User: Fold Cytosine-specific methyltransferase from Bombus vosnesenskii.
Amino acid sequence: MRTILINMLKKKSSLKILQFYQHLKLKGHPNGAVDEDIALTDPKLCLFNGNESFIHESDQRPQNKLTYFSVYDKNGHLCAFDTGLIEKNVMLYFSGYIKAIYEEDASPENGVPAKDMGPINEWYVSGFDGGELALIGFNTAFCEYILMDPSEEYAPFMDVVREKIYMSKLIIEFLLDEINPSYEDLLNKLQTIVPPKGITKFTEDSLLRHAQFICDQVLSFDDSASAEDTLLITSPCMRALANLAGVTLGKRVSLRQMRLREQKVRKPAWTKATTTQLVNNMFENIFADQLTKHNDTITMGPKRQRCGVCEHCQQPDCGLCNACKDMIKFGGTGRGKQACIKRRCPNMAIQEADDSDPENEDQYDTLRIEVEECRRKVFKELKKDIVWIGDQIASNNLKTFYRSVIVGDEKIEINDYVLVEPRNPAIPSHVAKVIYMWENKNGIKQFHANWLHRGNDTILGETSDPIELFLSDDCDDVPFKSVRSKCTVIFKNVPKNWAELGNMDLNSENEIKDLDGKTFFYQKRYTPATARFEDPLPDPKCLPKENRHRFCPACAHLREVEQFNMPKVYERIEEKSTKEVIYGLVKYKGEDYRVGTTVFLQPKAFNFKYKIIHQDIQKLKQENVDEDMYPEFYRKSSDHVKGSNFDTPDPFCIGYINEIYVSKNDMLVAPSDIKIKVNKLYRPENTHKNVTLMEQADLNMVYWSDEVCNIKFIEVVGKCYLAYSENLNQTVDEWTAEGPNRFYFNEAYNAQEKTFNEPPYHAISIGKSGKSKGNLKFKGKKTEESEKRAFVSRPIEYNKISKKLRTLDVFAGCGGLSEGLHQAGIAENLWAIEKEEAAANAYRLNNPNTTVFTDDCNILLKKVMDGETTNEIGQKLPQKGQVELLCGGPPCQGFSGMNRFNSRQYSLFKNSLVVSYLSYCDYYRPNFFIMENVRNFVSFKRSMVLKLTLRCLVRMGYQCTFGILQAGNYGVPQTRRRIIILAAAPGQILPQYPEPTHVFSKHACQLSVLVDNKKYSTNCSWTESAPFRTISVRDALFDLPEIKNGWNKEEMSYTNDAISHFQRRIRGKQYQPLLRDHICKEMAPLVETRIAHIPVASGSDWRDLPNITVRLSDGTYSKKLEYTHDDKKVGKSSTGAYRGVCSCCMGKQCDPTDKQFNTLIPWCLPHTGNRHNHWAGLYGRLEWNGFFSTTVTNPEPMGKQGRVLHPVQTRVVSVRECARSQGFPDSFRFYGTILDKHRQIGNAVPPPLGVAIGHELRKCMRDESVITETDTELQLKSH
Assistant:
């Protein structure tokens, strides 16, 4: 019967809705049936005897039960009452047996037979009987009826109704229990639940079928939410469902609100943040006052507009809720500016939630950053008398220099601080240090000003301390007439016991107070381009005594940086001609380059006949496609395929210097005149064997060649290190692991002859050394030149450290970041906190010596602050002074979003896990601090969350910075942009961000950010290329055994050898190689069949599905999708067929009778595709030569990751394949159910990213035993 109904609903016809039901005729009324008004007078139904003195208002309308009922229209055709017919004013009637309200027996016995009852005014759900069975009711003009059992012929209709009502109840309870659940989490919940008797197993198809009803019920439940509650409809899974199914939110329906018998209240996922006194003081006092003060001046972005059409928007203000009471028209102050709780527009709430989706990375792929040009300071001249004091100290032809001056009535001396009046009165006075002063020939009295940044001019913006300044290298020559007055600037020194001050009472006596409006302090310097707050640098020495009267340390530092970044030649050897003067040495960025040095060059420095060609999508021409068979193929018009490497650049070229020369015979050599002759080294992909060799060879293997190229030195981007493999005293892998940018060769390549040969004699000595490790001793004749060459060619080793950092990992997950820091050799993971039991167990499996706490992090910190040393189960808590490195990624649920940062949002932030994490930092005061979070962290609340986080760290005394890193740049086959906040204790060196090691898709490498219309980037200079090629899906997965849909064997053998460098490295050196967790989710028969019909060609997804009927694995058949409407936007197909599947494509409202189910092409995708970029990527296959989208916590073909199908197999990606996409070694263990394991992987920091950050941290841990970069070089590189 249900099949007939669905087929009739899908029937392509222009007749009225009722004609869909013309074949479902009512078989007849119950025997002896009477009309409704007569039946209701039967004594069996009446609870009253007529002698009552008073009848309550609610009892004046009779309420009865109804069993063995059927619903039909005026023509006697059976109809579903839940499909919108009542809303369309279709008269629906019903027949059956009426029973008294107290009756529990659902049989017709003792019932009153009735016919033609109605018409139905509304239907409703009044609760759940025992928690599972919905109590459904009808209302007519005469009575209310609670439904019991339907008639046999009407049972299929009621099964559908009960299914969607039970599903709605289940989903609302799920939303109350979970924090920010994803669409994939919702699917998993439905697919793993055991439904009540009589209801079929839930599938994604049934979820999408009932999406409108479910969303209406969630909205109905949200109507009872308080102003402080987050609407359930804005959760990620409900937004995804509404988008996929094309749900219309907030429409009026003739359906009474669904009520759960016991109204559940959402329980908080975490306790209120435990804060140290410093953090608490900042949030309770400083920020609250400042944000209130700045509230009217801060631009918080465009105000969202109501949709104006939903039921909520059309409600009047209730006048009773707190928001209304604050309104001026109801006698309030009008400060709150919140909408009436009854008028909260769900469409506006969903739009705000979409904008602030923490994982919405696509919005940054094509982001164009437009920045206000940095304007020069313009000063206002004041009417003041200016008189020099004392004799001149020096003079030249242009200037006469002095030590002091009187401006107005104030004496100003060198090294005093002054306030300079800007021309724009809206700008506060600039603060400057007077470095030196002079009078020019025209009599103008000026001084050289070294500017100090006000906090408001930094990334901190309105969260900064109004009297805190930051040192800078910005200088200007300023007339004394623009000086308003002197001011006091105090250097706030770091207390000697700084590390012990966590959670101590703040001594207000030591706090600097601005009593005269001219008192400031500073403790850090600030670099605007990279938002770095660092300890002040020591002033450079002024060498020539004759320049002391005009020496500026800031300008000297800028010159030092400029010289550092400019190549210079030394050791002139020979003049071969006026156009070729030979030199022995180039110094560039702190490195020495000589003959014998190997260098990275820009990718276009060499011309190669063979290059990596990331194949373009094999496009079928539109006219060659059978549009009746593939009706959605026309949507594939865009060239961009998510996860394709078509725009990935080539890695650096590599050359071996054999001569340094200058092309002009001048004593002053311009950088553009410095040239080098280099031997051209070939990567495997540049040989005629191309892809085959590239896929098998080590990433750092190259081929020697005797081809020599002339290259301008400005093409050099850095230094690398080369060795002939036979000269190594250890294995290639061991040698490679000891330091960065190491390459080796075994053979030479002849491009003309296409041959691989033994390297020539002069090449096989490269990398030759004595047996003592690290000492390069050439076996040939020792010369001074050869020793110099050996020294500059000696590979840099990673800094040796005698003791690893004692590490606490908070919000540790399964330990991705810890694993990376451990691989980098800097972290001793002693403690970890992870609330989720499965993830905590995974952490224990991989770190057996770590104490893993599963307590709430706030409770743990409270215990430590209260002096406790163990938790309830006897685990020792880390104490103050023990933690040297704090790392973690606090979740941002509860306050994430880009809407206004009002008092409620501020309160949520104060009690968030980010603040808890900052309190951990303040209490333990570690030497180094790492915080990882989603890319969108930068944008939450118009960047207020980022600003408050940095402000807290600065207030503690930390040096800190932030930056966006792309994990794909560090050797994983996945795009994953993350914000990394780094901090270092006073006196330590603030780490740099690691330069990319691998090239990656340009589309996914937009890493600059915009805060308050200012652009910020990291210190990384390798933005166009990198040392190694990108890692592809093929590199990562090709060696794994083939498995089927739903494979659940957790341990198996590899069956194949590792092929690629990535595979060899990821397998490691297991004693008994065993492949774990190569298991995948089982997809429903319809989903599995869809996957089987997705082609294996590049860029394939749901738009390539054929519109056919197919036998599914459970023996049932799918249906063809019918196109019933003329979509004016996209037109008709080449055969004249319609392309619309719902009346909404013609500008009308969605019609529930248009829905189709069990089709190979999911009906919901063409239904909503026009407004969602054609749902590109859903049911998409990974591309062998491409990369993963950001790995999510649960791979679903219609989830937001989209391309989660194996490149060629009929299944979604396995747990181990996802782990490899994150760079986890195959030996790394996960714990729990398959969903637990997917969640652990999706929430983790990719270990290779952790390794890269760890190596930068390592440079900041001082040890004099090896060659490494000096502190000065590190400081210069930061500029």
Summary: The chain has a mean pLDDT of 85. Residues 155-177 form the longest helix (23 residues). DSSP finds 28 helices and 41 strands in the chain. Residues 550 and 834 are 58 Å apart (CA to CA).
